[in-house]
Amino acid sequence: MYSDLVNAVSPLLLLFMTEECIKSVFLDFNLLDFPCLKMALSKGLGYAIVMGSVLVKFPQILKIYGSGSVVGLALSTFLLETFCAMINVGYNYAQQFPFSTWGENFFILIQLIVILIQLFYYSDRTILALLCPIVIPALSLGMSKLPTEYLAVGLTAAIPLLALSKLMQIKANFQNGHTGQLSFVTSLMNVLGTLARLFTVVQEVEDTIILINASSVFVLNFIIIAQFVVYWNVAPPSADKKTQ
Questions:
Q1: CA pair distance 146, 216, nearest whole angstrom
Q2: Which helix (H) or strand (E) holds 37?
Q3: CA–CA separation, 194 and 118 (whole Å)
Q4: What is the mean pLDDT of the chain?
Q5: Residues 21, 13: Cα–Cα separation, whole Å
Q6: Secondary structure (3-state) at 184
Q7: Average of pLDDT values for 72-80?
Q8: What is the spatial distance between Cα 43 and Cα 179, in angstroms, rounded to a whole number?
Q9: Number of helices (H) and strands (E), helices first, in the chain?
Q10: Listed range (65-69, 86-90, 164-168, 206-210) with the worst mean pLDDT
Q11: Could you tell me which residues come within 8 angstroms of residue 23 by beta carbon, excluding any fewer than 6 positions away?
């Protein structure tokens, strides 16, 4: 009867481990099968990251909307981050990697489009704000059709570009002496998400490019969190609504 129950839930368990692991852990009761347990943990974290990514940028979106200001936000940071998300989605989709290892990039890309609309709107560039939801999805679709070798080159270029995008925000925070309208909740979620993603990449993807990308982004996200601590009691100016 127990084996029938395991067979019934096998389609769900297969999302987290192989058939061999299901047999080892649930039928042979090898509860210390560490390779299988690490696989299940990695898959679980991957799905959690993807689900969490649906909301990761929402605190930032809400903070901009609530304040009606984009002061302290580096436009170049979000433009580069959007481009890198587009490359990541195209490359991973073309390589047919498990969605649990890259799906957050898809949802983050959608939210970045919303943030770019806000950035352009609150800096009096309405036409660019209107073009964002048209041009970015069209470019993303075009990128997904490129040959894999071109996407690999793009992803390699995305590593320093994504690092540069974070460095620009770090520089803006340092020069302004505050974190402006940057959302602490979103930044904290970025740190936790990239740490978990680093673990899943090590466990599931044998790709040095992806590993370097995940490692560098985690370090730079951590530096931004450190800036929140340093500038915690510094209030940004409320009148200036220009991007930095």
A1: 26
A2: helix 34-53
A3: 25
A4: 83
A5: 9
A6: helix
A7: 88
A8: 34
A9: 10, 0
A10: 206-210
A11: none
For residue 237, give the DSSP letter. P
**Residue predicted with more confidence, 66 or 235:** 66
What is the token pair recorded at 205?
């993807």
Residue 13 has pLDDT above 90, yes or no: no
Q: Radius of gyration of the chain from Cα atoms?
A: 20
d(CA 181, CA 172): 12
Q: Which residues contact 240 (CB under 8 A, 6 or more apart)?
A: 69, 71
SS3 per residue for 69-132: CCCCCCHHHHHHHHHHHHHHHHHHHHHCCCHHHCHHHHHHHHHHHHHHHHHHHCCCCHHHHHHH
In the chain the first and final C-alpha atoms are separated, in Å, by 65
- What was the pLDDT predicted at 243? 46
